């Protein structure tokens, strides 16, 4: 591993052993099977939103890993704007899970979040060893990202209630592959434990004893 830069050029200000990845949730749902997948979107959106809030409270970085959908002259912010248009089937999904200023983002040209992207470099600077993978679709982009994470020796958690595919069967198949071959932890999102935030640690810190005069 190359030496870290002393300044923030090419570096990241946060340090965390864990990162939460939101894969392809900035999505117009403009593909033939989107009607099938859409029925699973509301439940997933609620679960991912809660998980993201808990991650932020604990100081765990949130990284959006998103397909560019062939829009090579676009950037991530324009992707968000595009998906929020009134005629976009994915507008409600994106409105609920839209990124915040403190979030990171990586645009990917293919299925895996690692292929031809800056994700690995970002994770290295953050000091991440454990990845929580959520998003769309469990049997494609989440699976391919998990595969590449496994080959890089990351610990992988994939909460089944935060991952969807076109059908429930396809989603189960993707999850089973990740558990069997990639050693993925498939615990539900509510059972994922985050470290306490710095604020919480300060609150629970015992008061200093006064020295005897």
Write a structural description:
37% of the residues lie in helices and 14% in strands. It has helices at 34-38, 41-57, 76-83, 91-97, 119-126, 141-151, 168-182, 198-204, and strands at 18-23, 62-67, 104-108, 130-136, 155-157, 163-164. It is globular and about 40 Å long.
Helical amount: 25-40%
Briefly note the structural class of the backbone.
alpha/beta
The averaged pLDDT comes out at 87
What is the radius of gyration? Answer: 18 Å
Shape: globular
Distance between the termini: 53 Å
The description of the largest β-sheet is: 6 strands, parallel
How big a fraction of the residues is strand? 5-15%
DSSP, total strands = 6
Number of separate helices: 8
- The ordered string of helix (H) and strand (E) elements is EHHEHHEHEHEEHH
Low-confidence stretches: 199-204
Key terms:
213 residues; alpha/beta; 8 helices
Secondary-structure map:
Elements: E1 18-23, H1 34-38, H2 41-57, E2 62-67, H3 76-83, H4 91-97, E3 104-108, H5 119-126, E4 130-136, H6 141-151, E5 155-157, E6 163-164, H7 168-182, H8 198-204
What's a quick, concise take on this entry?
This protein is of the alpha/beta class.
